[in-house]
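User: Show me sequence and structure for the first protein, then do the same for the second.

Assistant: Starting with the first protein.
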Amino acid sequence: VQLVESGGGSVQAGGSLTLSCTASGSFLSISGMGWYRQAPGKQRELVARIVDDGSIRYGDSVKGRFTFSGDNARKTVSLQMNSLLPEDTAVYYCYLYYGRPYWGQGTQVTVSS
């Protein structure tokens, strides 16, 4: 399994970015996929992921601002990030759990004030 992210970049506070992750390899569905992020000096934290009942769980700090979506046929998940804040600056990682965790290479998101 390989996960390839795209869409990171730099934006001013209040702006928007969309991240995408496309998975390749032998796995059944995107139900185990999500996004995490890691800021310098901090632990990796949940941004959004699909949970067991198919709903989306969001990290508290992004609720109401970020929207997770997925296309099972294309094995792609996306993260629409609105109203970005400087504290959203981090490396964002695509994640898949399929027997074991898989991680993408990460994409940098930088939000300036």
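Switching to the second protein now.
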Amino acid sequence: VQLVESGGGLVQAGGSLRLSCAASGLNLDDYTIGWFRQAPGKEREGVSCNSRSVRITHYADAVKGRFTISRDNAVNTLYLQMNSLKPEDTGVYYCNRIPNSVNWGQGTQVTVSS
């Protein structure tokens, strides 16, 4: 099983990024999948998730109204559209299965400058 995150970068506050999580060895359509992030010096936290069966989505309060999670089962990829980015969104972003996470990928770095 391999999860590969991409799409991060350096943006100014107010900007946007679209993250991707490509999965191999794991059919994302069979699972609830989420995005997580880890800021410098802090523990990893959940950002958003998309449930398996009825496709219910959840967002952390800090990102509600700004981030949108989606998936494309045809290409076995999870996305996170991030708008109105804030400096506090800075961190390494990861995706994984919920619960029973699989091996964490390398993540993708998001840096938001003020």
